[in-house]
């Protein structure tokens, strides 16, 4: 079994993970909240692994009750770690890592339409805009192209304390 860390170390892990993802998102010309909603838009669907997916009538993401993007990011991270610490697998953590890297890659490649679609899905599924009717992307969350696009970069990844052999 995977031991659950103490309350203090668990809080440190959550805080460091939150800061690492937010730092990746802040290293662009776009507002980091844009990418948080994109992350939710990509993770929040019923076929996603625990803790985000689940039964079609009651997927895991419906447990989110926050009112802002920072609470949304905290929910995403803490939910994935809670599943991991309860020895139910690391699929939730892996999909967060893959999705953060995918979103940053799409942004660097200038795939604005795909990111806008994820943004609106994330805003709807987190309950921050209405499900039906016209939805507009707020001015501060609109896409901003990067002036200098770097082809090579450091991607977000979890820190491993020991190497598997």
Rounded to the nearest angstrom, the distance between the terminal CA atoms is: 19 Å
Rounded average pLDDT: 84
Summarize the main sheet.
2 strands, antiparallel
What's the total number of strands? 2
Strand content: under 5%
**Over all CA atoms, what is the radius of gyration?**
16 Å
**SSE arrangement, N to C:** HHEEHHH
> What structural class do the secondary elements suggest?
mainly alpha
How many DSSP H or I helices? 5
Q: Which percent bin holds the helix content?
A: 40-55%
Shape descriptor? globular
| Unreliable sequence segments | 161-165
Strand order of the largest sheet: 1-2
Task: Give an overview in words.
With 165 residues, the chain is mainly alpha-helical. It contains five helices and two strands; from the N terminus they run ααββααα. Strand 1 (54-55) and strand 2 form a beta hairpin. Helix 2 packs across helix 3, helix 2 (32-43) packs across helix 5 (112-125) and helix 3 (69-85) packs antiparallel against helix 4 (91-109).
Give a summary of the structure in a few sentences.
Helix content is 50%, strand content 2%. By secondary structure, the chain is mainly α.
Features:
50% helix, single chain, disordered C terminus, two-stranded antiparallel ribbon, mainly alpha, globular, 5 helices, 165 residues, 2% strand
């Amino acid at each position: 079994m995977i031991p659950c860390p103490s309350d203090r170390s668990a809080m440190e892990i959550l805080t460091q993970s939150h800061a690492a993802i937010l730092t990746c998102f802040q290293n662009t010309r776009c507002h980091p909240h844009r990418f948080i909603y994109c992350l939710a838009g990509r993770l929040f669907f019923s076929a996603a692994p625990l803790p985000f997916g689940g039964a079609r009538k009651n997927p895991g993401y419906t447990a989110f009750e926050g009112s802002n993007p920072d609470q949304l990011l905290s929910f995403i991270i803490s939910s994935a770690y809670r599943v991991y610490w309860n020895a139910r697998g690391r699929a939730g953590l892996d999909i967060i890592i893959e999705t953060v890297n995918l979103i940053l890659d799409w942004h660097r490649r200038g795939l604005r339409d795909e990111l806008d679609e994820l943004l609106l899905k994330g805003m709807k599924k987190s309950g921050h805009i209405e499900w039906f009717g016209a939805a507009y992307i707020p001015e501060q969350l609109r896409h901003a192209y990067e002036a200098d696009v770097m082809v090579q970069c450091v991607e977000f990844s979890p820190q491993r304390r020991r190497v598997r052999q």
